[in-house]
Amino acid sequence: MNFLRSSWCFALLICLGVWVTPSQLRACSDSLQLIPRPVSVQRGTGVYCLPSPLRLGVDTPPLLTEGLKRLSINAAPSMRRSRGRIACSIDPKLRGREAYRLSIGERGVSLIGGSKDGLRQGTQTLLQLLEQYGTKLPYMTITDSARFAYRGVMLDVSRHFMPSEMILRLLDEMARYKLNRFHWHLVDGGGWRFPSEKYPLLTKKAAYRMEKDWDTFWQKDRKFVDEQTPGAYGGYYTKDEIRRVISHATKLGITVIPEIELPGHSNELFFAYPELSCKGKWTFDASDVCIGKESTFRFFEDILSEVIQLFPSKYIHIGGDEAAMNHWGSCTDCQRRMKEEGLKDNHELQSYMIKRIERYLLSKGRKLLGWDEILMGGLAPEATVMSWRGEEGGITAARAGHDVIMTPGSHVYLDFYQRESEGEPRANGGFTTLEKVYSYNPEPTALTPEEHKHILGAQANLWTEYVLDARHAEYMLFPRLLALSEVVWSPQATRSYSDFLARVNYHVPRLQERGINVYPLRRIAVDMQLDSTRREVSIHLSSERQPSEIRYTTDGTEPTATSQLYLGKPIVSADSILLVARLFDGAKPLDLPSVRYRTDYHKAIGKKVTYNGHTWNEKYPAGGTQALVDGLRGTPTYLDGKWQGYTTPLDVTIDLGEVTELKHVFARFMQERMQWVYMPGDVEVLLSEDGETFRSVGKQVTRTSEEEYKPVFETFSFPMKERARYIRLKAANARSAGHFIFTDEIVVW
Ligand code: ACM
Ligand code: ZN
After folding, report:
1. What's the 371 CA to ligand 1 centre distance in angstroms?
2. What does DSSP say about strands 233-234 and 255-262: parallel, antiparallel, or unpaired?
3. What is the pLDDT of residues 377-428, one digit of tens each?
4. Hey, which of 154, 188, 321 would you mutate to test ligand 1's pocket, going by the most ligand atoms within 8 Å of its Cβ?
5. Where residue 705 sits, what CATH number does that domain have?
């Protein structure tokens, strides 16, 4: 930040004709704060001071004129071609996707786009420079183009309705950061938001509900009320609002891709048109449309026809994900369809519907886009796949010659926590830090360069189960969308997280100035290493916020201005510590929660572990065989890679190597019901000297209610005065397949 002030100062000195050393100017160049990082920047020596009023050439894009106004830069149009001090033009010879060249030199600013899109992207770059430097622009030449054509953001407006004003603001920010596809998830089990003239009951009967809280609504209710019901919660867009969103997006070079979900995630539909379900009526568990009935196809073709009239996008997203497939097997219509069409299972039945809908879209000159489940039962011939359940779907589709958009839950799901969950608003249980988003490379190494051509780009998704309103949505989107911006725009080879982090720290206050409710970079990352030779743990801390001061204690107390300052050297412990770390600005603690992290260099660390019967579930291995005795404790977030998960009971034996005095054995478990993670019914600890005969030292029944939907942590603690070589821990999991129990460590003292 200091640096900014100093570069301003250089600029001023140069404009006044004061000599500045080359090293000072080199320092200037390091401070370029552009996001996304351009392909190439060549710095010159000198600063061009924009005259006031600034004369604009006739080719000046409206985006630039409006941007200058927003930045309060005095500009006036000039009638004469290319006489403007900011000269804009298009040169189709400029190579590269959405390419532009921006030169700032003694003769002024020249912006050349290879196309209209390129000119638009160059304009956004120039506006970022003007925001950073004001009217005193350092000499430079930027040559830039996009890595991927598809640079997307998805917003779910069904679980919680988001007003169109929020979307207009989002589009502005997307454009600033060169994101160019807005995927509008318009309909789902939380409410129907698309206004249909032919089916008016959709918005009259399926767009409002009484229950705002998602857990309660989804677990107990799933019912909608009529639009006019007093106190009803929800909403839908008018066609005029949709036109306004599309027109604003088009001006910014963003394509709006509408999504109409089928055949699953259609619960809300049956409130308005129950005849589209297999049972012919609304039921709590009906989420898929009936594929047997012709009326289902008439309905979707009618709706899609209205969608197509409104949205110019080539792509129409038809959903396709997570069909429950629970009623098709017992539906006479669906069964008849399967027989007639020779479809052997539910997947082929679903695929029949997707292929038929694709034929309809193609007949209207549009293309089908769907979540990766559309691969099941055979992919529609010209479909493009959005790979969300990891990258596998995308890899399979690309190998089969289909286009792909990467949007894996592991890296770009913005409904997940962006730091440890304590002190954060409730989120879906996953873990997607800024760094995690930044680390994503949409081109899987498993694919050949030829196959990479099918990867059109990547997209971040914001599902809104727990995102209550527009402010909250912004908090989840920003600044993680800035990381996405660089993932999809900048060359992979020149990307660096530390370099990016410094620039994000510059952009967060800028976003705030524009009224965006941005997540204020409040994570302190705790990285723990175990040294089994020295029998100690060392903890390294790093902050997203820069510059920052981290102060900490190791006895569980809240850090104060006089607590130890973290200076980059690891914190070392051979015992048990409860680390509490917090960000400070001098003597003042920042108004951000502290992180708490317990470590124990306990007696079982590194000892041999035997899984009796089952091991962990492949999706949640944590550190594998040694995970339960590696000293690494889970954070409050189930997907942090430190929690080991099991769909069976857990039964493990730890061999301490020799008979050892034991004072305490404990293990912590997690319940995160929305992710199918439950407390074990009970936990038992048994001891043995020979590994053959075990005696129980106690069994504890869980105190956690199964009805609790918020994440819960429970420690099963067994204080004792015993001697033994083998410790066996059993945790019951009596639930059916697909229900997990999770633990992070068996601590032995
Ligand atoms: C999805 O997250 N169900 C596409
Ligand atoms: Zn049916």
Report:
1. 7
2. unpaired
3. 999 999 999 999 999 999 999 999 999 999 999 999 999 999 988 789 999 8
4. 321
5. 2.60.120.260
Domain CATH for 96? 3.30.379.10
* Sequence-separated (6 or more) residues with CB below 8 Å from residue 170: 153, 155, 182, 473, 474, 477
Determine the atom of ligand 1 nearest the C-alpha atom of 413: 2
Structural domain including 572 reads: 524-600
On whether both 587 and 500 belong to a single domain, the answer is no
* 5 burial via Cβ count (<10 Å: 0-12, 13-18, 19+): exposed
Considering the domain architecture, whether residues 358 and 504 belong to the same structural domain is answered as: yes
Distance 212 CA to ligand 1 centre (A): 21
Q: In the structure, what pLDDT confidence band is assigned to residue 80 with cuts at 50, 70 and 90?
A: low
In a domain, 155, yes or no: no
Q: What is the pLDDT of residues 191-242, one digit of tens each?
A: 999 999 999 999 999 999 999 999 999 999 999 999 999 999 999 999 999 9
Give Cβ neighbours of residue 698 (< 8 Å, ≥ 6 apart): 684, 685, 718
Q: Determine contact, residues 184/246, Cβ cutoff 8 Å.
A: no
- Please tell me whether residues 612 and 658 are part of one structural domain: yes
CB-based contact 730:684 (threshold 8 Å): yes
Whether 22 has a pLDDT exceeding 50, the answer reads no
Average pLDDT score over residue span 281-310: 98
| 86-113 tens-digit pLDDT | 999 999 999 999 999 999 999 999 999 9
Looking at the CA of 350, name the nearest ligand. Answer: 2
- The number of the ligand nearest the C-alpha atom of 280 reads 2
Alpha helices, DSSP H, located in 58-142: 62-70, 116-133
**Ligand 1 pocket test: which of 156, 183, 322, 675 has the largest number of ligand atoms within 8 Å of its C-beta?**
322
Going from the C-alpha of 562 to that of each of 120, 543, 553, the distances in angstroms are 51, 19, 10
Q: Judge if 199 and 218 occupy the same domain.
A: yes
Contact 729, 666 (CB under 8 A): no
Q: Is residue 149 part of a domain?
A: no
Taking 3-state DSSP, the helix, strand and coil percentages for the chain, each rounded to the nearest 5, stand at 30, 30, 40
Q: Exposed, middle or buried: residue 301 (CB in 10 Å: 0-12, 13-18, 19+)?
A: middle
CB 664 within 8 A of CB 719: yes
Domain containing residue 327: CATH number: 3.20.20.80
C-alpha to C-alpha distance for 567 and 91, rounded to whole angstroms: 52
Same domain? For 487 and 385 the reply is: yes
pLDDT band for position 84 (cuts 50, 70, 90): low
How many angstroms does the Cα of residue 504 sit away from the middle of ligand 1?
A: 28
Q: Is the pLDDT of residue 21 over 60?
A: no
Nearest CA to ligand 1 atom 3: 321
Q: Between 185 and 623, whose confidence is greater?
A: 185
Scanning the structure block, which residue is given the tokens 């201005």? 561
Q: Whose CA is nearest to atom 2 of ligand 1?
A: 388
Instruction: Name every protein residue with a CB atom under 6 angstroms from any ligand 1 atom.
Output: 321-322, 371, 388
Separation of 184 CA from ligand 2 center, angstroms?
28
Q: Is residue 596 part of a domain?
A: yes
Number of structural domains, the chain? Answer: 4
User: Would you please indicate which residues are annotated as catalytic (active-site) residues?
Assistant: 322
Q: Give the percent of the chain with pLDDT over 70.
A: 95
Atom of ligand 1 nearest to the CA of 388: 4
State the pTM of this model. Answer: 0.90
Contact 36, 141 (CB under 8 A): no
Atom of ligand 1 nearest to the CA of 322: 3
